[in-house]
Design brief:
Helices cover 41% and strands 24% of the residues. The protein is α/β, with parallel strands linked by helices and 303 residues long. It has 3 domains: 6-71, Arc Repressor Mutant, subunit A; 93-165 and 273-302, D-Maltodextrin-Binding Protein, domain 2, CATH 3.40.190; 170-270, Periplasmic binding protein-like II (D-Maltodextrin-Binding Protein, domain 2). The mean pLDDT is 89. The radius of gyration is 23 Å and the shape is elongated.
C-alpha cells in the first residue's frame, strides 16, 4: 500500500463537506483538477473507490469513502490539536478555535453569557458561533464543522455525548394582560379555541403539536413562523399565544418591550433539558470541554 499523507486526508475531508469538487476546490484555494488529482491518489493509495464523481451531479462518497471521512476527521483534528496542546502545556493557558452551535430558539439567552465568559477568562480562545435548528446542528457535528452544540435533548439521535445545562419544559406564553396570565399554570383546554402561533423550527413545532395530541385537542393554528422573536412579538400584541420551552430570564418581554407571561401547563408536559452535545466517537479537546463547563456554570442557578 502506498503512503497516505495528511494533506490527502485534509483535501478529502473538504470534498466530503461539499457537494461538488468545484466547491471543495474553492474552499481549499486550489484548482478543481488539483483536488481531483489528490483524491485519485488517495484512492490509489488505499486501493478503494472513495467517491463517485459526475459533472452533472457533483460528487458523492461511497461506503468506503464515508468510512475514510470519519477516520480522516479524527486524524486531522488530532494533528491540528498538537500546536494548541503544546502551547497549553507550556503556559497552562487555553488557546485556539472552538466551533459552537446553538439552537436558534435559545441562542439569545445561552450564547451572550458564554461568549462573554470566554472573552474575559480565555481571551486566546476564538469562539466561532453557528445558530440553527436541531437537524442542522446535528449534521454539522457529524460533519466535523462544529465541536459542540447546545440544543434541546428532544429526539436526539444516538451517538452523542451530552452534558445537561438546565432543565426545561413546555410552557404557554401569553400576553401579560391575558385573563389566564395571573394563574400559577394553565390548562391547554382553556386555550385551545384561541389563535395559536407556532415556532416553526425543529423540535419546537413537534413539541407544540405533541402537547395537543397528548390531550386529544386540536389547536386553532393561526400562523407558523420560524423566527422566535416574531412569534413572541405577535403574542405580545395580543394576536394569539404560543407554546415554547422554558428558558432563563428572557420570557418576560418582547423586543418591543411588551410584557409576556410564561406558565407551566396543567398537567405538566415535555420535561427535558438543554444540553451541550458532541459526537461520542470523537475525543473532545480541552476547549470543547471548557465550553460545556462554562455553559453549566452560567446556568447553574436554573438546575
Amino acid at each position: 500500500m502506498a503512503k497516505v499523507t495528511i494533506r490527502q486526508l485534509e483535501v478529502f475531508l473538504e470534498v466530503a463537506r461539499h457537494p461538488t469538487l468545484s466547491a471543495a476546490a474553492s474552499a481549499l484555494h486550489l484548482s478543481e483538477s488539483a483536488v481531483s488529482h489528490v483524491v485519485t491518489e488517495l484512492e490509489r493509495a488505499l486501493g478503494e473507490r472513495l467517491t463517485v464523481r459526475r459533472k452533472a451531479k457533483g460528487v458523492t462518497l461511497t461506503a468506503a469513502g464515508e468510512l475514510v471521512a470519519r477516520r480522516a476527521r479524527t486524524v486531522v483534528e488530532a494533528i491540528h490539536e498538537i500546536p494548541h496542546e503544546l502551547a497549553q502545556g507550556r503556559d497552562g493557558r487555553l488557546a485556539g478555535p472552538v466551533a459552537v452551535g446553538c439552537y436558534n430558539g435559545i441562542a439569545d439567552s445561552v450564547l451572550p453569557p458564554v461568549v462573554q465568559r470566554f472573552a474575559e477568562d480565555f481571551p486566546e480562545v476564538r469562539v466561532d458561533i453557528r445558530v440553527g435548528d436541531n437537524d442542522e446542528l446535528i449534521e454539522a457535528l457529524h460533519e466535523g464543522s462544529l465541536d459542540l452544540a447546545v440544543l434541546y435533548d428532544v429526539n436526539l439521535p444516538t451517538g452523542l455525548t451530552k452534558r445537561m445545562i438546565y432543565p426545561t419544559e413546555v410552557v404557554a406564553v401569553l400576553p401579560a394582560d391575558h385573563p389566564l396570565a395571573a394563574g400559577p399554570d394553565v390548562d391547554l383546554a382553556d386555550l385551545v379555541a384561541e389563535p395559536l402561533i407556532v415556532l416553526d423550527t425543529r423540535p419546537s413545532r413537534e413539541n407544540t403539536l405533541e402537547a395537543f395530541e397528548a390531550r386529544g385537542l386540536s389547536p386553532n393554528l393561526r400562523a407558523a413562523i420560524p423566527q422566535i422573536e416574531v412569534v413572541r412579538a405577535l403574542v405580545g400584541r395580543g394576536l394569539g399565544y404560543t407554546l415554547l420551552r422554558s428558558r432563563p430570564a428572557v420570557m418576560h418581554r418582547t423586543t418591543e418591550g411588551r410584557p409576556l407571561t410564561g406558565l407551566p401547563l396543567r398537567p405538566r408536559f415535555g420535561r427535558s433539558a438543554v444540553v451541550a452535545a458532541w459526537p461520542s466517537a470523537l475525543r473532545p479537546n480541552a476547549r470543547t470541554l471548557t465550553v460545556a463547563e462554562v455553559c453549566r456554570e452560567e446556568f447553574a442557578a436554573f438546575r
